[in-house]
Amino acid sequence: MNVLWIFAHPEGRSLNAALRDEGLKALEEFGHSYRVSDLYAMKWNPVVDYEDFAHDPRERMLVAAASQEAYESGRLPADIQAEQEKLAWADAIVVQFPMWWYGLPAILKGWFDRVFVKGLGYGIAAPDGTVLRYGDGKLTGKRAMAVTTIGARPSSIGPRGVHGELNDLLFPLHHGTFWYTGIAPLPPFAVLGADRLDEAGYAAAVEGLRDRLRTLETAEPIPFRYQNRGEYDENLVLRADLAPGRSDLAVHLQD
């Protein structure tokens, strides 16, 4: 497989960097090809602005429309086009980051903001006009896995833990970014208690990451429901007979 590894940590001597290096060695050992986007090392600009779309700042900019026009006319900046080329090359994406304030570091969020423009990441329609998202889209056929470190103690991450359940914390990435654009999200690999990790814990983390990368091509994705397979009504609300009486995020998982 071709694997794009997107890395978002500012410190090259960090736990994240060490895990990245071990992960890349494992990919090579398992026969995969890879490319790396080290966002801090690249000094990636995370901010969407007029220059992304060669838009006249004297005129009001509608970001979605401007991004689609620039994408389809080949006028996006070279840095965005380079990342889109890597994305097109990849069969799988590994997105690695420390979880900060319940989400992605800003530089990584900005990678998605600038790379997943309209016409590529969203705004895709079938010939009959059906909007292709949540399981369908231009990026369908690719798979992605989040690799994250969380400083909180393991007991505090869970259904009754004060920080919440891991899959709920990652729902915006898994469902709202990967699945929305048609990419199949794999269960995440998380190192909990990262700030307290000892030598044995690090060894276990490396082995756990290797195990997950070994099955990157074959692991079952998170079974989210498709938007366009009849499970949501015309208002994009889950049918009343599915997961009745519930309103948690897991209602969007297939039974």
From TrEMBL:
The lineage of its organism: Bacteria, Bacillati, Actinomycetota, Actinomycetes, Pseudonocardiales. It comes from the Bacteria. Residues 1-212 form the Flavodoxin-like fold domain. The keyword Oxidoreductase applies. The keyword Lyase does not apply. This is NAD(P)H-dependent oxidoreductase. Belongs to the NAD(P)H dehydrogenase (quinone) family. It comes from Amycolatopsis thermalba. SUPFAM superfamilies: Flavoproteins. Keywords: Oxidoreductase. Gene3D superfamilies: 3.40.50.360.
